Amino acid sequence: MDVTNQSVYIGGDGGIVALHQENLTEQALTTNYSNVWLLLYQNENKEIIQCYNDIINVSYCIKMTWDLHLLCEKSFNMSVDKTHPPTYSMITDIAVITTSYGFLSLNLTDMTHNVLHKLKREPNETVVFKSSFVYKASYFLFFQIFQKNGDYISSKIGKLCLNNNAIKAVSTHTSSYEDMELSCVYENKTFRTIEHGIIADGVFVVVFRENGTTLICVFGSSDIALGFHDSRKRFSVELSSHISEICNESAANVANMAYNCTEVHCTKSIYPVYAGKVVITSVDILIHDWYPVLYIGTEDGRIGKIRSYFIDNDLIKNADFQQFDTVKIIKIQTGQDHILALSSNKFQKITFVPCSSCRDCESCMETLNPNCGWDYDTQQCISNQSYVWSWIPSRVGFCANISHLNKQIRIENDTTHNEIKFRIKVPEKIATYCTKASCTVGTISGSIRRNFTSPNTCTISLYNLTAGHYNFSIQCEDGSKNVVIAVKDVDLLRCNDSLACTECTNLGCLWLSESFSCVRACRAVSSIVVEPNFTCEIRQKNSFSWTFEALWIQNTTYVRCLGVNLSETSAQYKIKLKYKTFYVDNYAPLRVYSCRELLYDNTNCGECQYWINKKFECQWCTSDLKCYNEELETCNEIHTIPNCIPSIKMVYPSSGPVNGGTLINITGQSIGNRDDDVIIVDIDGVKCNNVTVLIASNR
Fold it and tell me: Last residue of a domain, which of 467, 495, 523?
């Protein structure tokens, strides 16, 4: 796909179509050329250049008018694998193309081509090109190397200098092409597999993917330049001895790439900006006013927006996505008011929705429209108000929000001030211009510290408010206006309004069991109380209920039911705490068990250990090799944490084909239990797949 000011050109297996960019109506169509692997528009002559494979897999490149009429055609003595199509970039009237043959230059005037450089690789290796671009008179490309059998080897970034006379480098540098591995670190893991790369304003944006995680990292051009220097093996001494020479100039130029340096060291600017599980298949950057916005297409047909990576280094784990199709997005290209998206199913122009259609701050931040921003003063999503401190552009990616705030707040019974604890996260622009901050509950205002990076406290008097539902809000002032930046719902309660024990204690009040009431203060009580008004009620389905005396340990959450004597049964018991005629809580399940009955085999040490690990009160008796209940049975030699020695009795079958696939049964003692997270079985170092415990500890 290539895009001009007026048209969109799309090539593929069925030919080439030209569409009006404004309304996507068809301008021209040709089906004479299938298997198109290169399509570009030369703006100066308003000509289309396309390359394709014929039926015997020989490549041709042709020049066409803007409305797809043939001008000339040239045959190349080569074929191109469309499974891994080449990448290319234009430099005035020259197209640089990367293929399995190496770097080709295609003269767009006379359609002649030359081999600029042949990529060196082993006979059993395949190169898969991911993306390429031209920057500072150098052609950059990202590619992966595989073995012929499909095994991944490595990823690299390559650089081909297009004008050797313009290269400024140390005298020992003799080659115009070089490549190196590139990596980025996230959560102590190094990502090296490159899936895509793009450049904007001298910043390299690289997409990595390792073990199901996608990572987007930003590299300054200085990082790339120094990386190439560090990877060159032709230097007679290490790079460190050249660093002062490289950095002498305030705008040094290494391999024709400019970057800023201090006197003796260069500033590195590598950092990750996004981490997630999505598989990214296309990337484009829209430079909007003074900041960039990164747009991505995914394998499952979604289009996402990632906020600017120049503003701060906060890692984003959730991009803003919209569903475009159900299949892989092949390419996206952005304009100032739209995105052009191409999948194998369809092509569509996605026009950015008006900012006014976003009704709250969250939807304003999530819109694909980079022009939008949320104005906290007017509480509206509006366009381009960067000169207003209360307007936050959608590139920021989040709204001011309050967290760690108790949903229920106690009203003091006197004029004592409440200390309401909370945290608040605000955009950097708000934090910069907010000279004074305050808090409000209902119509009552309080004071807070202007601190947006650590836990905060709202000091406020709530004595004159009645219990009920209120808004807790944070305001900012800049000296001229007071703006609400965040709101959270809270419930105000007094201790004597609480009718439940949990609600009472969550407020910091005391629950009186005698009166079944909530109070602010309470008389001292003994630490252990046998409360005659508390009982444990145990019942069983289709059976009678039993009532037992309760021993309540004050200042704890423990209640002990006394004198309980129940029989083991498959039918589940239920237990509930009761105060006089009131039930304190819902029924909880109660299991009555005998350790000997839990086991398939009472003499199996491994099974006994399994139930001990599950916190059942069992013990392994070493003297008679049986599993007993603690305290109820006697044993001469007890091990509450037994050391069970695994043993294998039989492996069936004992032979099988070398290509695998044989189902193997292993029988033994203490070799596995139900619910084991990981069971590893290997035969002479080769791991078995889908290992399952059939009978605990035996097979």
Answer: 495
